[in-house]
Amino acid sequence: MAPRIKTRDRIVQESLALFNAQGERSVTTNHIAAHLGMSPGNLYYHFRNKQMIIAELFAEYEALVDSFLKVPEDRTLTVADKAHYFEALLAAMWRYRFLHRDLEHLLESDPDLAAAYRAFARRALLNAKAVYRGFVDAGIMKMDEIQLEALALNAWIVLTSWVRYLCTTREVAGDLSEELLRRGIYQVLALESGYLVESSRAAVEQLAERLYVPLSDIGT
């Protein structure tokens, strides 16, 4: 028999599902409590307000990205690692897509969350630069430090704005799929193509074929 999920964890999990499905602004603590079949007072015992639930979900997302966006300490990077990074990014973006969809509103509504996000963004950019530097050191990509910095920043801009872009192209803003997010990962791979070393191009092109989603499927 599977262990029973703690009430606090259930609140976090179901809030994530509701935020993803309906958008954070459409979901209140009363909606969450009703969805869970509990009284608002019981929910407030665990979380004083919705911002606390969002902060916990962001901490989960932050820890997840930190766990994979780094260079292995004991070996050189390979093209297979590029696929791993992209698949991990796709999974994180899909699981916590409401954070990307409602980011500006979330940060405006909670100064503490905004400060945490700024620190996360700085760290993620440093880690992304380290990963790209690892690909250069491995002979998979070729670029100087200025190009490397620009590529890391451009990749960050694409990934963090992709969900909001998709929402502008859909008849129903929340009508998203993991497949549509996959095209955003492909866009980053397209940014990298000019820096690939010829010997790694064939393997990366195979990865691009797996990630490609026609623009007609996005609605543009």
Question: Your description of this structure?
Answer:
This protein has 220 residues and is mainly α. The chain folds into two domains: 7-46, Arc Repressor Mutant, subunit A (Orthogonal Bundle), CATH 1.10.10; 51-218, Orthogonal Bundle (Tetracycline Repressor, domain 2), CATH 1.10.357.10. It has helices at residues 7-22, 29-36, 40-46, 50-68, 79-95, 97-101, 103-109, 111-137, 145-169, 178-192, 198-211, 215-218. Helix 4 packs parallel to helix 8. It is elongated, with a radius of gyration of 19 Å. Keywords: DNA-binding. Residues 28-47 bind DNA. This is Transcriptional regulator. InterPro entries: Homeodomain-like_sf, HTH-type_TetR-like_transc_reg, HTH_TetR, TetR.
- In terms of structural class, how would the helical and strand content be classed? mainly alpha
Shape: elongated
At the first level of CATH, what is the class of the largest domain?
Mainly Alpha
Radius of gyration: 19 Å
Strand content: under 5%
The name of the CATH superfamily of the largest domain reads Tetracycline Repressor, domain 2
Low-pLDDT ranges: none
- Biggest β-sheet strands, sense, barrel: none
InterPro entries: Homeodomain-like_sf (IPR009057), HTH-type_TetR-like_transc_reg (IPR050109), HTH_TetR (IPR001647), TetR (IPR025722)
Domain HTH tetR-type: 5-65
DNA-binding region: 28-47
Pfam families: TetR, TetR_N
